[in-house]
Amino acid sequence: MRCLLKPLPTASLSARSLQVVSRSISKRTFVRYLPAPQSIVSIPQVKPLRRPLQSQLLPTYNCLRPASSLSPTVLSVARRSTVSSNSRPYTTGHISGPGAPRPPRDNKLKAWPFVLIFFTGAIAFAAVLENRKDKPRPMPPTDTSSSSKELPKLRDDGPIFSPEAVKVIFVLGGPGVGKGTQCANLVKDYHFVHLSAGDLLREEQSRSGTEYGELIKTYIKEGKIVPMEVTIVLLENAMKRSIAAGKHKFLIDGFPRQMDQALKFEDVVVPSQFTLFFDCDEETMTKRITERGKTSGRSDDNPESMLKRFRTFKETSMPVVNYFDGLKKVVKIDGAKSVDAVYADVKAHVADRLK
Ligand code: UDP
Ligand code: MG
Question: Which of 176, 204, 313, 319 could bridge to 289 as Cys pair (CB 3.0-4.6 Å)?
Fold first, then answer.
C-alpha cells in the first residue's frame, strides 16, 4: 500500500480513487502502467513474496511509475508478461480491450499443483525410508588386517623338507594364461604332482565343516590373495600326503602370488628349484577366461572379477616373479602362443631340469 501511494508522480488522488485502489488491492489485484502497449490492466498476484522474480517485479506492478524510470530488464519482463496476459482468452464476459482491467483469476486453482507435488514428494520420501529400514547393509569384503578369524599358525623352525629330496617348481603367470593346461602336460610326461593353489583353496572352501569357507570365498570373488597361512597349510598337507605315497616332484601352480607367501613357503616348507613364468598380454588372457567361464562354474571367471585379478597380478604377483628373476631362478615362456607351441617351448627350455 505504501509502495502504491508513494511514487504516484503527478495526479493527487482523491479519497474516492484511493478507496478504489485499496479495494482492488484487497482483491489481490495489482494495477500497472506500461508504455508499450499502453494499457492499464489488472493481473492476479501469485504469492509474490515467495518468488524472487516476482518480488523483483513487484515495485513495477504496485507502483504507477513512468516507463523511463524502470530498468531495461524489469521493463522487458513486464512487457512480455503484458503481452502474454493480453493474449489469454477470457470467458467471463468482463470488460475487454485496451486499458480494461482483467478479471482476477481464482487463486484456489493455482494452489492445487503445489499441494499435489508436496503430497507426491512426501509419499515418495516415506516409501524410500520404508525401503531402507529393513534392508541389511552389504558387508564389506574381508580384509586381512581387520579379520577377526584366527588363522593357522605356521612353524618358524626352518624348512620341513630338504630341496635335494623334494623338488618344487613354482608355475606363475596371469589369470587364465594356461598354467593349469601346461601343468597337465608336464604331469603326463614327467610324472609331477600338480598342486594348484587355487584348486586347493576352492576345495577347502566347499569342504563341509571348514572354518575358512567364507573367508576364501570372499577373497577369490574379489580377486584378492587369501592370507598365506591358509594357503601354505593346504599346500604343505597336500605335499605330505603325496610324499607319504612316494612322490617327490611338485609343480605348484598359481603360487606364490605375493612376496610374503614366497618367503614364508621357502622358509617353512622347502626352497623352490625355479619358477616357470608364462608371460601373456591381457587381451589374450581375457579371451581365454571368457571361454573358460562358459563351463568352469568358477565365481571369478567373470568380467568384474577378471579385472580385479589382472590388477592383483600386476601389483602383487609380478614382484614375486621379479624377486626370483633377480636370483636367476625364473624361466620365462611366451604364453600367448598355441597350447602345443607353448609346451614345445617349455620342453626346449627346461627339459633337462624336469627329470
Ligand atoms: N588364490 C590365492 N592364493 C594363491 C592362489 C590363488 O588367494 O596362492 C586365489 C586368488 O583369489 C586367485 C584365485 O585363488 O584369484 C584363483 O586362482 P587360480 O590359480 O585358480 O587362478 P588361475 O590362475 O588359474 O586363473
Ligand atoms: Mg589355474
Answer: 176
